[in-house]
Amino acid sequence: MDLVTLAASLFCTVLVGLAAFQVALAAGAPLGRYAWGGSHVVLPTRLRVGSVVAIVIYAVFAAVVLADAGMVALGLPEPVIGVLTWVIAGYLAIGTIMNAASRSRAERVVMTPVSTLLCAASVVVALG
After folding, report:
1. How many C-beta neighbours within 10 Å does residue 1 have?
2. What transmembrane ranges does the database entry give (predicted)?
3. What pLDDT is recorded for position 85?
4. What is the per-residue pLDDT across 3-39, written as a single tens digit (0 to 9) for each?
């Protein structure tokens, strides 16, 4: 397995874990201190909806990164897929900064490394 395939596989594996986490949050699990700024133990309705939207975004991110790694076909031109992967990497870099700056210690400690790993994996795919 080459590095790009490994990075894309790792990226998607982490996203599956995050999607499960977001499902739990949307269902009312008391894990809110790890997400959305950490100011709620159980998320209010608007943030639960945000968790559902995040799952959809994760699916789009996974499809794009897998397409850039040559593991699936999306039917988009390769240059478009490449640009989208860089956009995802930039989004994740911003997310890493935001997680690192969170008022919630739990979010900083858990989500900053997760978003850093996702960002790094997406950059490896984008460079590949």
Report:
1. 6
2. 50-76, 83-102
3. 98
4. 999 999 999 999 999 999 999 999 999 999 999 999 9
Range of 75's domain? 3-127
Residue-wise pLDDT for 60-100, tens only, equals 999 999 999 999 999 999 999 999 999 999 999 999 999 99
Return the exposure string of 71-97: e unless at least 16 CB atoms fall within 10 Å of the residue's CB, then b: eeeeeeeeeebbebbeebbebbbebbe
Q: What is the 3-state secondary structure (H, E, C) of the chain?
A: CCHHHHHHHHHHHHHHHHHHHHHHHHCCCCCHHHCHHHCCCCCCHHHHHHHHHHHHHHHHHHHHHHHHCCCCCCCCCHHHHHHHHHHHHHHHHHHHHHHHCCCCHHHHHHHHHHHHHHHHHHHHHHHC
Total residues belonging to the chain: 128
Structure tokens at 26: 């949307």
